[in-house]
Amino acid sequence: MRLPHSLFLVFLAAVLAGCASNKEPKFADMPDAPSPEQPVVKSANALSGKVASYNSIGRFAVLKFPLTHMPSVGQTLFLFRDGLKVGEVKITGPIRDDNVVADLTKGEARIGDEVRDR
Question: Please, which residues bridge with residue 84 across strands?
């Protein structure tokens, strides 16, 4: 009668030892989330511009891009304010110099919002 009791205690000790080693990581062990003060890294090939003007009645915006990297007609771009996505536009044209007209398809736009393709 002594052997099954001892065997049970050995089995119980092994189970408890196994459970003790599988603890969840503590919050201190996890990497920190990026803070708003950290710079945002962008791809060198990413299309980026600014909202130069916005017509809320017609829901279209004039966007300003560098002459070296202009969007194409029909392309969908995203509007960001303070790093947060606030809208979506579709390039409709016309394209004049470094300005292009786009229709607002989702969200909202304000002068100074950043326009990106990603």
Answer: 81
Q: For residues 56 and 53, give the distance between their C-alpha atoms in angstroms, rounded to a whole number.
A: 10
Record: fold of 48-116: Thrombin, subunit H (2.40.10)
Other Cβ atoms less than 10 A from the Cβ of 51: the count is 22
pTM of the complete model? 0.61
pLDDT tens per residue across all 118 residues of the chain = 555 666 666 766 766 666 555 555 555 555 555 556 666 665 567 789 999 999 999 999 999 999 888 899 999 999 999 999 999 999 998 888 899 999 999 999 999 999 998 7
Structure tokens belonging to residue 3: 């052997």
What lies within 8 Å, CB to CB, of 107 at 6+ separation is 79, 85, 86, 87, 88
Report residue 68 as tokens: 């070296």
Domain residue spans of the chain: 48-116
**How many Å apart are CA 56 and CA 49, to the nearest integer?**
19
